Every structure is written in structure tokens, then in C-alpha cells.
Amino acid sequence: MSPSKVWYMNARARRFLESTAIKGRQILERSGWLDRLQPGDIVAVKTHMGEAYNVGYLRPVIIRTLVDLLTERGLRPFVTDTTTMPYHPWISRTLAMDHLDTANKNGFNQGTVGCPIVMADGWLGTDDVVVDLQGKGNYLNKQFVARAIADADALLSVAHFKGHPAGGYGGSLKNIGVGGASKRGKMNLHGALAGDKPVIDVKLCPGRRCEWWQVCEDCCPEGSIRVTDQGLEVDLESCVYCFACANLCVNMAGFNAIQRFDHLPTLGRRIADSALAAMMTKEEGKAFFLNFAMDISPSCDCYGWTDTPIVNGLGVLASYDPVAVDKACIDMMNAAPGLLNSEAEEFGALAAGAKKLNLIKGKDIEAQIYGGVANGLGSADYAIEEVPLDRSQAAINTFYPEVRARKLKGMYAKNHPLKGLDTASFGRATEGVTDPHHPKK
Ligand code: SF4
Ligand code: SF4
Questions:
Q1: For atom 4 of ligand 2, which residue has the closest CA?
Q2: Which CATH class is domain 197-259?
Q3: Which residue stretches of 236-392 are H helix?
């Protein structure tokens, strides 16, 4: 089997047309993917619009630039994501209305992205289709795929490549594997339907002497938690392993009485299975994957904060193969030197060639890759094709259609901003200028 092709444009930008947003569009055009679609096809543009107060998510202009291209080609794009599990007490994306509100505050709305934004799994995350993986899954037999993504004719995944606390890293596989799953699909891939539970040590909980005890009870959507003066009681039968209490207890209370249990080897493979389920809703060649490897923070855009990047921006990578494009990003990240004042420094991962996220997370973060190879979704064997920037006059006309200063000429003639001013009176001549010519208007 030949290696999967990964198109690549680097992250440097020194001149016109070198914007990362423009590179995203140029790489998509170069891939030829759009020629496989029919005018009128509905295209789900799956991205992550960021948790409240996260500042690392992909900027709306990146999505807008891609949407403009799809629209110009006669396609019908919509930008989409799904409702989340609670994950932590203050999560702002568990209901469609909350997710849309957060997206709007983060700069994503129909006005900024140029097409409708649709919560693909509906109000509470139950609008989905059940996909039978036909025995191909590593762990999953069936998965819930968000209906709008499943029903779309085509899928364009636009992922932010970075680290991730549970999945090890986030890229294309996570964007469609987790982000393409409905809320109950997320419960499934996080192990709730397989019986996974948080790790609980009631002896560590001081009961109502913990200042967070009320939040601890309130954040559990199942009503599984009771905190008394004596301590903690958790009904594990009703718990669906949503992480909310664990993230509170570890990150805010600091008692570690409830923790997530480290299930990356399994979770990564379940994410790959879930991604396969999303792909099974599409005809061959109707899905395409763009990874923007920039602002590479050690954790994900689901957090309400963004740490400093661990390596410099790498660029834009694209493929028909979500496994290959993720693997290429991981390898490129590892080959790059780490950055000071980041977790790369904190965890001794500064050297070029050091496996950055493996060292930072203290484990092998490639479980999604292994899972995606094992279930037949894609290949870890890839060949990079570097895409030259299109600097033609046609490209300039696409992105910079007007010389806007042209309009100023007539206005300046009538009302120049410096008109009538004694310009020489505004300061001394620049050092080294011996014969200044002050403008006379
Ligand atoms: S956050 Fe932790 S320590 Fe505080 S009440 Fe809940 S379980 Fe107990
Ligand atoms: S007890 Fe279970 S369902 Fe309740 S908040 Fe904790 S993990 Fe979520």
C-alpha cells in the first residue's frame, strides 16, 4: 500500500498572500478535493470554536476563507460542532444554545464565517444516527454520529493541532471522532457505556469542609454525588463518567478525592473508532482533513485557558487520510525544538527530536494513530508534498480585489488630512535627515 499523501505549507509569513488563512484555501484548492463534489452538495465544515475564555482556538477568518471558497464553487457549507459532556462545572457548551452563545462570543457567527452555524447533534445532543462499525472497531461496535454531520454530503474537517489532556493530542481524528459524536456518542467513546467510572478515594474528601462541596454536588447531572459533614458518597450505578466532579476536585479543590482514571490507550482507540463511524457516513473521497498546526499549546481548546505553545507554529497540513495528517503533525512537532517558558521546558522536552507530548504527558500519546491504523481508517505511513504558494496576479485578485487607496485620491484632493497645517511645527526633523521636505497641502 502506498503512503498517504499529506500536502503541506509552512507557517512563516513575511509578505502578502502568506497568511495562514490563505494557505488553508490554497492547499484545499491544490488537493483537488473540491472537484470530487457536486454543485449543491451540503458540506459540514467541522471545527472547534473554543471554550469560554480559551484563546488558542482557530480564528474565525481561517474558517471564513475556506467557506468563501466552498460557496464560490456552488457548494452549500455550514460550520458545525456538537454539544459536549459536562467535563467540568463551568463548561459553556453542553446545550446548543450555550454552545452557540460561546461561539458567538469567540467571534463565530453567520456574519463572520459566511454561512449558517449548526449544532450538529441538536439541543441536548440527542439528534444523531447510530452507525454500526461492522466489526472493524478496536473497542466500539456502534457509535452515535451527530445527525447534521452524518446527513451532509461531504465533510471538511478543519482542526487545530495541539496537545490534549485525555486524548494526548488533538487533530483530525479527535475533531471528527469526538467532535463529530453527539453527546451520547461522547459518553460512549469516553467509556461510560462500557462501565468506566472515575477513581474515587472517599477518605481524601473532607466533606463540607471543602469549600467546593456545593459545586461538587451541583455539577453532577446525574445527581450521583452527596457531600455531607462526614464525607463523600457517590452512587456509581448512576454515574456516567462525565469528568465534571473529577476536574473540580483535582483542579480547584486539590484533594484528588475524585479523579479521572488514565485510560488513554483505550480512549485513543475509541476516538479512532468514533472517527471511523463518522467517515462511514460519507461516500469514498467525500471527506477531507485540514490541520492547522499553530498555537500548539499542551492542552486543548475545551479548557477555559490556553498555555504558551510548546513548539513554534508548523503550518497547514492536509490529507484525505485523517491518520496520516495527524501523524505528520506529531512527527513535525517532535522534530522541532521546544520553546522556553512552556511545558516543553518544564518537562525536559526542549530538544529537537524529543517526543514532546510523550514527555509532557508521561505516556505514549499516539493511541489514536494506532487505533486508526488498526481499524482501517488510515495509514501512519505518509509522504509530504510541499505546496508552493500561488503568488500569481489571479491569487492577488482573489484575496486583495481592490487597491483601496485609489478611492482616497479624490477624497484627499477635496479634504486632505494635512490640509492647511504648518507641518514643520509638529516636531524636529528625523535624525540623519539633513534636508527635510515638509509636506505642503
Ligand atoms: S471537590 Fe473533592 S474534596 Fe471537594 S467535596 Fe467534592 S469530592 Fe470532596
Ligand atoms: S459522579 Fe459521574 S456523572 Fe456525576 S459528575 Fe462525577 S463523573 Fe459526572
A1: 220
A2: alpha beta
A3: 244-248, 264-279, 322-335, 343-346, 356-361, 367-374
